[in-house]
Amino acid sequence: MTSVEEQLGLLRERRWNQAWALAPLGLLLLACAVSVATGPEDSSDQAATLGIAAALAVWHWWFVLMHPQWWDRWVWPMVGYFVGLLAFTSVLVLRDEAFQLFVPMCYVLAFTTLPGWPAYLGVVAANIPWLMIPGTEPRQLLVNLTLSTALAVLVGAMIRAMEREAIRRRKINSELVAVAAENARLHELLVEQARAAGVAGERARLAREIHDTVAQGLTGIVTQLEAIDERAVPPGPVRSRLEIAGGLARTSLVEVRRSIEALRPGPLQDARLGDAVRQAVTTWRDQYGVPATFTVTGTPQPLHSEVEVTVLRAAQETLSNVGRHAQARRVDVTLSYMEDVVVLDVCDDGTGFTPGETGGFGLTALRERVRALAGDVDIECAPGGGTAVSVTVPAIGVDR
Q: Which residue spans traverse the membrane (predicted)?
């Protein structure tokens, strides 16, 4: 992830590199123009000189323009390039003094194309073309070369320092962008956790309110209706209406209790997930009279309430389906704590069913609930071969 400022900086850097790569060709073209304008009238000699200049241009084009990834990375190919550059330049200077215009570019290319300390050796070696100029006083030439080399080294070192500082700042900017992105992610996570906690708190409050008001009122109505002595009410319309009212009150009480169970985890308020599932298995075994075992594998760990409720509801729904449809003689329930997931396996030896004929609302609701947590429900079954239901959900801890 990169910021807009960082992208603009990289774009400017690429443009500067391209400009430095094209600058030698422009200066070489200028030297050729001066050579043609001031050179000897011998066309064959001038053509040979221009041919050498063209070879130098091709040499530079191949190593620098065609392979920019070699700069500051591959030492020996660029050392070979620089040696060839000095050789071509020296020959051109010997043939025509106009190509002295190109010699200062050798200092620049030493720092542009050579990595690390070889660049400083390249600056010293860039003086070789000057030595090819005939008729220069040695003492004056030595002074000039010493001053030009020192100046080139100073400028090159300053440019290298500025490049390192730019790279350091770009790296710091990248780290700041990454930190900002992480902070944004953590903020979103905190907001989501706060929202989930608010939803859970509101659902618990609604469950308490319904239990303390509507459920208690319906319980009282049912109790009062059941307390009426049948002998005190003769058969007729009145008794019929009382029986209907009692039935409606009982049905409404069942629905209210079901709504309360849907609003709060129930057994998970006072028990861990393993204990809650064990209690559900024990209750189911007592209700249907079918042998059922419960096993916990792995290291139990505190999980997010939504994960625990989903696993518990999956156990209850699956056991309910076994009790109503499977005609099983044995049921095995396993709760497995793994590194990043929690797996609930419910296996029975019942009648099974044909895959694809699982369109019941309970199983559909279970799939939707598990998928809301990025989990998965896997069912293996065959007619007469029993059924194995595996529910896998992420092990989201309470501290996340």
A: 20-39, 46-62, 74-94, 101-121, 141-161
